[in-house]
Design a protein that fits this description.
The chain is 48% helix and 13% strand. The protein is an alpha/beta fold. The C terminus is likely disordered. The chain starts with a helix and ends with a strand. It contains twelve helices and ten strands. Bound molecules: adenosine-5'-triphosphate and ligand LQESDW3C. Its EC number is 2.7.4.8. It catalyses: GMP + ATP = GDP + ADP.
């Protein structure tokens, strides 16, 4: 290549790199959505968006570290070196649906999983959301544990026996399920969740870490939120103060709690439950995609 052509090619490459960096910055700043960038790449093969690697685009999304970008690419069957402009039609369709589900459509909802250690206040925060935000579907789990005083079948849980729970599993009616605290089984009924999501309604699952991991594997677009206690001492105080478990059961739950607290980096978002109303509002913000913006921001903590 003649010297003058080489210089021009090098200038063009630098300009293209800068343009791609500006696109990434715009997504990070919430000025553009990732879907918008992907659609622009497919509409204009010469534009800067088309030259972006899919991995770069996913890496701009909040909560998606390198490991989760790799997982998403594997699930979408897209090579890590592929550029947006080089995707085939099926890959485009898969990426489009995945981004839509993850970013949400402006003004519509998404699937959020709320997990955290025992007695941190998941049920209290979820109950506050049920009361103040009836637009959000709070999934009612099935469980084999016995009702606590005041708990109502179909409201707090569907209380079933072992045979009933087995039947739910056999019919494929559970989105996820787990034996929690080495004691009872709990699971999320699939049909109401799928129906609500299909209707564009936000869905909140209040489940344990094992269930959260299963949802991540089967629905990678779900947003995983970890509810943190202000301190370990406060967590113990809440568990003991609730007074619904025997000393033996409390000890078993606190053992699980240590494991769950150690896993919080797996989550997309962290919310501290020092105040129920504020923590609930943070979760509601995460459940809602404001019009014109990619994701809500300004929360107290972020996992990554
Ligand atoms: N922000 C808060 N400040 C003080 N107390 C709280 C707060 N949130 C919840 N609590 C109290 O902590 C106790 C445990 O709350 P809750 O039962 O909602 O926890 P949980 O995370 O759902 O527990 P589990 O996983 O064991 O079902 C309750 O007595 C509740 O009233
Ligand atoms: N994997 C799932 N875990 C669930 C579900 N519903 C509730 N849970 C979790 O169980 C524990 C204990 O609850 P408790 O009411 O007995 O105190 C708690 O961590 C819940 O989040 C579910 O459907 N799947």
């Amino acid at each position: 290549m003649p010297e003058v052509d080489r210089a021009a090619a090098s200038r063009a490459a630098v300009a293209a790199r800068r343009a791609r960096a500006a696109v990434k910055e715009a997504v990070r700043a919430g000025e553009r959505t990732a879907i918008d960038v992907a659609e622009a790449a497919w509409a204009a093969p010469e534009g800067p968006e088309a030259g972006m690697r899919v991995a770069e685009l996913l890496g701009t999304l909040r909560g998606l570290g390198p490991k989760r970008v790799d997982d998403a690419l594997e699930m979408l069957r897209i090579s890590p070196v592929k550029r947006l402009g080089g995707l085939g039609h099926l890959q485009r369709d898969r990426l489009r649906s995945w981004l839509r589900a993850r970013e949400g459509v402006a003004g519509r909802g998404r699937l959020v999983v709320l997990a955290g250690p025992t007695a941190v206040g998941k049920g209290t925060v979820a109950g506050y959301i049920r009361e103040h935000h009836p637009d959000v579907l709070l999934s009612v789990s099935a469980t084999t544990r016995a009702p606590r005083p005041g708990e109502r079948d179909g409201v707090h849980y569907y209380f079933v026996d072992d045979a009933g729970f087995d039947a739910l599993i056999d019919r494929g009616d559970l989105l996820e399920w787990a034996t929690v605290h080495n004691a009872s089984r709990y699971g999320t009924p699939r049909p109401p969740v799928e129906a609500a999501l299909a209707a564009g309604r936000s869905v909140l699952l209040e489940i344990d870490l094992q269930g959260a991991r299963q949802v991540r594997a089967s629905m990678p677009e779900a947003l995983l939120v970890f509810l943190q206690p202000p301190s370990w001492e406060e967590l113990v105080r809440r568990l003991v103060g609730r007074g619904t478990e025997s000393a033996e059961e409390q000890a078993r739950r606190l053992e699980t709690a240590r494991v769950e607290l150690a896993a919080q980096d797996e989550f997309d978002e962290l919310v501290v439950n020092d105040d129920v109303r504020r923590a609930a509002q943070e979760v509601v913000d995460l459940l809602t995609v404001p019009s014109g913006a990619a994701r809500p921001s300004g929360r107290a903590g972020s996992a990554r």
